[in-house]
């Protein structure tokens, strides 16, 4: 649930102004970017990078929820995207928010399904929605998309 819609809008406006293409291609302050191959162990790498980055930013309280969300975003990208280009994990600190994004080469729009709690899959975006403040996706100029989730920090 969005607690502060104006702060959320400000954060998302920043990503729109800078653009995910720019964030993914150049170093920016308070931004971590990590290329990931299309393989299952990329999920663990993404979790580790997320935890380490949040600890370095002094935000260890976000690490469990953020690592879970990143796991779902990377799992979805690996499972549903086919291509020769890799994935990119992006973490961006825009106080009082942290933005997590996974870029992939697919133009297919992510669609949240009603979760089937008996099935072994199909709950990814439900989990992302539950644990983050909000989520969405942006198309990339080069093709593909960045699926993102926004977290509000305690501080």
TrEMBL record:
InterPro entries in alphabetical order: Anti-sigma-factor_SerPK, HATPase_C_sf, HATPase_dom
UniProt-listed CDD domains: HATPase_RsbW-like
Start and end residues of each Histidine kinase/HSP90-like ATPase domain: 37-137
Keyword Aminoacyl-tRNA synthetase: no
Pfam families per UniProt: HATPase_c_2
Protein name: Anti-sigma regulatory factor (Ser/Thr protein kinase)
Keywords: Kinase, Serine/threonine-protein kinase, Transferase
Annotated GO MF terms: protein serine/threonine kinase activity
SUPFAM superfamilies named among the record's database cross-references: ATPase domain of HSP90 chaperone/DNA topoisomerase II/histidine kinase (SSF55874)
């Amino acid at each position: 649930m969005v607690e502060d819609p104006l702060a959320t809008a400000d954060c998302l406006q920043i990503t729109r102004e800078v653009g995910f293409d720019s964030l993914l291609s150049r170093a920016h302050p308070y931004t971590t970017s990590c290329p990931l191959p299309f393989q299952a162990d990329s999920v663990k790498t993404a979790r580790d990078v997320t935890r380490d980055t949040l600890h370095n930013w002094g935000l260890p309280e976000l690490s469990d929820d953020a690592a879970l969300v990143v796991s779902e975003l990377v799992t979805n990208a690996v499972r549903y995207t086919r291509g020769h280009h890799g994935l990119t994990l992006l973490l961006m600190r825009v106080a009082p928010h942290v933005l997590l994004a996974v870029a992939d080469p697919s133009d297919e729009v992510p669609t949240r399904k009603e979760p089937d709690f008996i099935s072994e899959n199909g709950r990814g975006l439900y989990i992302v929605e539950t644990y983050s403040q909000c989520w969405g996706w942006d198309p990339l100029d080069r093709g593909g998309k960045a699926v993102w989730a926004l977290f509000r920090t305690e501080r």
